[in-house]
Amino acid sequence: MEKILNEIGKRKIEKYDIFYEKRIKNEVKFEQNEPQEFIERKEEGYGLRIVKDGKRGFISFNLLENPEEIVEKAMESLIYGKEIEPDFPSEKIENKLKIFYDLEWEEKDRIEIGKEMINKISSKYKDLRVNANFSKEYIEKKILNSNGFEGEFKKNVFSYYIYAFGLMPTGIVFASDTEANFKPKFNFDKILENIFFLLEKCEVEEKIKSGRYPVIFSPTSLSFFIHAIIQGIDGKNFEKGITPLKDKKGEKILSDKITILNDPEREDLVGSAPFDDEGVKGEKFKFIENGILKDFLVDLETSKRVNIKPRGNGFRNSFENLPTRSFSNFIIENGEKNLEKIIKEISYGLILYETIGAGQSNTLAGEYSFNAGLAFLIENGEIKGRVKDVMISGNIYEDFKKIISISKETKKIYDYELPYICVSDVKIDKK
Amino acid sequence: MKEIIEKGLSYIDGEIGWIIYEITEITNIVCFGEDIEVSNSKRYGGNVRVYNNGNFGFVTFTNPSDVISSAKKASILAKLEKKEKINLKNLKVIKDKFSPQLKNDPRKIPISEKVEIIKNYNKIFLDSKDRIRNAIIRYNETETKKIILRTDGTNIEEERIYTGIAFSAFAFDGSRVQPFMKSFGDQRGFDTILNKEKDIEEAISNAFLLLKSEKVEGGIYTVILDPDIAGVFIHEAFGHLSEADHLHRNEKLKEIMKIGKKMGSEILNVVDNGTLYGERGFYRYDDEGVPSSKTYLIKNGIFNSRLHSIYTASSMDEELTGNARAINYRFSPIVRMSCTYIEPGEKSFEEVVDEIKYGLYVKGSIGGQTEIEMFTFSAQIAYLIENGKIKKPIRDVILTGNVFETLKNIDAVCNDLKIHGGLGGCGKNGQFPLPVSTGSPHIRVKNVLIGGK
């Protein structure tokens, strides 16, 4: 970093920030019931953003061969740089979050866990095959800027992903489970229980006719909804006038049962961090509170354009990219009813676990239309067998106004915490 | 640099091993409304992959001087477990250098000229504020120089230059946003992004048109797919299914996907062809150093061949096809497609439309997804067909089906093959986007389920 700072000094660049990221990911991969690959992925690099004469330039690099050339290229990028002067933070932030545990997860232990789980699944379901991945990722981030901000933190993220797939009486089945944690502590019996529950329900096929029914969206099926919401409240889309929520701040856009927040300080969700990738302290904030749109999501640059306070939502895909707007941890607040009770109250409907083709509609407008990859019929308050060849479609801004209930139970999926959401009158098309 | 990388080979301890090193330079020009941004970045990196007793060790590195420690580490990882021994296929030792000859090399064009072209395109969008609210244009140029070394003496240098452009127009009526996208991308050089004024105009008028059109009625339709969406359909529906890595140890799935099984009518021929020079999915060698090839997945309606890596071909004792690909040095190669397309038939588009009493003409692709037998894919725009006439536009058409049923329901293949590249690519096992091409002539499919109002 010093060499780069020298070059910056020489060129009288008064405004800049440097982002450094290091990641070491260690994976144990199982393919079709057997250990297959052992991986160590190391990556580190820098992103340098400079501001001069009202314009912003950027360059990233992962091999510092020639610091002079790199800063010179950053200067060149100013020629066509965006006309913006972000206000870099100056507040010093001390990391008080407990997000780093110096723990190992031995490869041998991971191989053993994988073998044991696979044995349990294949002894019950011989025709299925299991793929799995057990990983440890070390993440280190450092930021410094021309306003005097200097900060760094590190964390270890342990995670697993497991899925069983193959031919069942109802056709091809994919049943999966995933979780991430700051410690390598997982309840593998519970994971198996989840997978067995899904597989057992795939033994029998149930018929459903086209129509409108209540649907319980499980946490794993909600990606289409999250994707549409993030696009809808995105500060850049707001700036450019292409979100349907453009004039809806302070208005009710979803059911009053739903509250969506960003919480960067949850020590049980792996997206937590003392500051974002621009050095802005993360703020716990309800972007949608009881269905009302409270504000749009901004990073430093969009904040300046749309005059909305930055709340620590500037994140980079990697050191190679400039920040874009995102959540540290995306949380949908849970409700008061148990899932069991929610199911009991449905006389005829669906519970959805997996989607095929979600996010390929006009998501910006809130539209969705996908195949119910894994969905079960609910009849008289009980989950029955699997329904197939079913399309589920609608618009989140209409349908998620009709929420019947949100479950008490939630599932943590990496940096998301999501409940089950039961929506009435969802359009189902059946072949 | 190459000499340093080569030193790593002698530290590999396993049945076979690879070292890949890549230097990638990316130039992006992005316009979003009035804003224009230009960026350039250069990335260095490599990996060592070692195979031993059925297992792989894989280690990535950035600095060439780390190759020896990475080779040692990958060798240790490969020995963490032992499996049943598989005799690997006999591999051809290859020594080759390949760099494409471009008519109009984007690397020789000054950035100012590129910016000027993009700005001129953007002006068309900015001048159309009566019909659209905003627009995005993305220009991308990616140059990759790759060294592929194998412990058997294979030593390859391959260079690829991708050029492409994508744009989206957004129409807005105060409550609904309607995008329309178009993209072009291949390895033919800078000419690929020139003369796009008509396509920009098409994006603007279609976004505006769709804003006022009706949503599709859910139900079962006879559809005609245009070459763009038919290409995505065959990629999603059958291409992924023919990748051997999801079934090489699954006897039940092998039964369903038995070579020689009838998949469709005799008019159906599906090809994966990595040798199509200039296409986005073209490559001379895959990431295991195996030459790309032309593989008939379906020949005259019969399942003919799978796509393979060295490992899957060896474990199933089938021919190598050169389809082990990684999106970059950070990932190990897995079985992937290249340029996948339906070969042209004999019918004309007009003839096929003429035979439809009630159906949909579906155009342009937003994307698709598959889970072995079930797939979905979504269209940019569709038109109602009534009594052989193409009528009003319809929006939000997402098609779904079971691949085995749907392939049998293809009852017409036209004579107008078109291959598309674009700027995105294919995603699999966390590796996205891999440059691929998809293509097809117009095809007609009966009994397709579409979700809707």
What's the structural blueprint in terms of helices and strands?
The complex is a heterodimer of chains A (431) and B (453).
Chain A: H1 2-10, E1 15-31, E2 34-52, E3 55-61, H2 67-77, H3 107-124, E4 128-145, E5 150-168, E6 171-181, H4 188-201, E7 211-217, H5 223-233, H6 235-239, E8 260-262, E9 285-289, E10 292-293, H7 300-306, E11 314-315, E12 324-325, E13 330-332, H8 339-344, E14 348-356, E15 367-379, E16 382-387, E17 390-395, H9 396-399, E18 403-413, E19 416-430
Parallel strand pairs in A: 7-14, 13-19
Antiparallel strand pairs in A: 1-2, 1-4, 2-3, 4-5, 5-6, 7-19, 8-9, 8-13, 9-10, 11-12, 14-15, 15-16, 15-17, 17-19, 18-19
Helix pairs in contact in A: 1-2
Chain B: H1 2-7, E1 16-32, E2 35-52, E3 55-61, H2 67-78, E4 95-98, H3 111-126, E5 134-150, E6 155-172, E7 177-186, H4 197-211, E8 214-215, E9 219-225, H5 227-239, H6 251-256, E10 270-273, E11 294-299, E12 302-303, H7 310-316, E13 324-325, E14 334-335, E15 339-342, H8 349-354, E16 358-371, E17 374-386, E18 389-395, E19 398-402, H9 403-408, E20 410-413, E21 418-420, E22 426-428, E23 431-434, E24 437-440, E25 443-451
Parallel strand pairs in B: 4-6, 8-18, 9-16, 15-24
Antiparallel strand pairs in B: 1-2, 1-5, 2-3, 5-6, 6-7, 9-25, 10-11, 10-15, 11-12, 13-14, 16-17, 17-18, 17-19, 19-25, 20-25, 21-24, 22-23
Looking at this protein, list some descriptive labels.
A: alpha+beta; 20% helix; globular; B: 453 residues; 2 domains; 25 strands; 19% helix
